[in-house]
Amino acid sequence: MQGHLQSDYVNTILYFARIGTILCCLAFLFSPFFSHASPAEVEVWYRRALLASAASWALRLHQRLKTSNAGFSRATLETLVTEDAFHYLVYSIIFALLTPVSVSLMPVFLFALLHSTRFTQNLLDASAPQRNEATGDGPDTNSAAGQPSYLRNLVQAAVTKVNTNNEPILRLIALNEIMLMVVCIFMALSGPRIIILPFIYYPFLKMRYNSRRNPYSRLAFYELRVSLQSMACHPKCPGFVSRMIYGLINLVSRLCPTAG
């Protein structure tokens, strides 16, 4: 396992940044219940989670640009803006600098969880007992040491569970991105300190809608539209509610960019 970590140090750093993001998110969520930390101390974990997320996305973006072997040009910048890593680098920096919005940690946490499972699986494979190709036996097939530990089995089960639910998790992230816009609007109406939040968040949501690699934001918008139209057409839906729904749909349709 140590050899695997040392042989790919960039992905190793990226992996530990994502693990740090996960741990900081959990600390922010559970520290009020298990400690007497003040709100300011709890807020530290919130900002640490976002900074760790920003670091991991920045490193991932560096990998993407290095792989493309493209020089600095307008085409490179246009490609950069369509990268998920750029979107969430901007996202993490925005929410790290502004008043805490707890639900903003959900996509950060879920992406870190998704992206860390592949490297975790590689570590599990690297640490597995090696079989002897000539005899078919492992090094300690008759000893307890040769058997997978309870912790290893637990981690393997968790990795498998996450991998099998990859698409539902991505759909949940996309839905959270949209609902977060609603949260930003309500928070802007509740206090002058974050009145600019919806205007800052809207460009991020446009970038997510136009994402090349992740179609789930567009899919989530479409599914929400179908659900709202179905609700508005229901015979029991009051007329004023139906008009409000169609007005909202028309407004969002005008604001939605054309997918690139």
Helix and strand layout, with pairings?
Elements: H1 2-7, H2 9-34, H3 39-68, H4 74-81, H5 84-97, H6 105-127, H7 150-164, H8 166-190, H9 197-209, H10 216-232, H11 239-255
Subcellular location: Membrane
GO cellular component, one term: endoplasmic reticulum
Family: Belongs to the PER33/POM33 family.
Task: Explain briefly what this protein structure is.
Belongs to the PER33/POM33 family. One of its GO terms (cellular component) is membrane. With 260 residues, the protein is an all-alpha fold.
Low-pLDDT windows of residues: 141-145
Report the strand count: 0
**Large-scale geometry:** globular
Helix tally equals: 11
Rg from alpha-carbon coordinates: 22 Å
Q: What is the N-to-C order of secondary-structure elements (H for helix, E for strand)?
A: HHHHHHHHHHH
Overall structural class, as computed from helix and strand content, comes to mainly alpha
Helical content stands at: over 70%
Range of strand content: under 5%
What integer is the average pLDDT? 83
What oligomerization state is this entry in? single chain
Distance between the termini: 42 Å
Largest sheet: none
Description:
This protein has a domain at 2-129 and 148-164. The chain is mainly α. The relative contact order is 0.09. Helices cover 75% and strands 0% of the residues. It has 11 helices and no strands. The two termini are 42 Å apart. It is a multi-pass membrane protein. Belongs to the PER33/POM33 family. Pfam families: TMEM33_Pom33. The chain crosses the membrane at residues 12-33, 88-114, 178-204. This is Transmembrane protein 33.
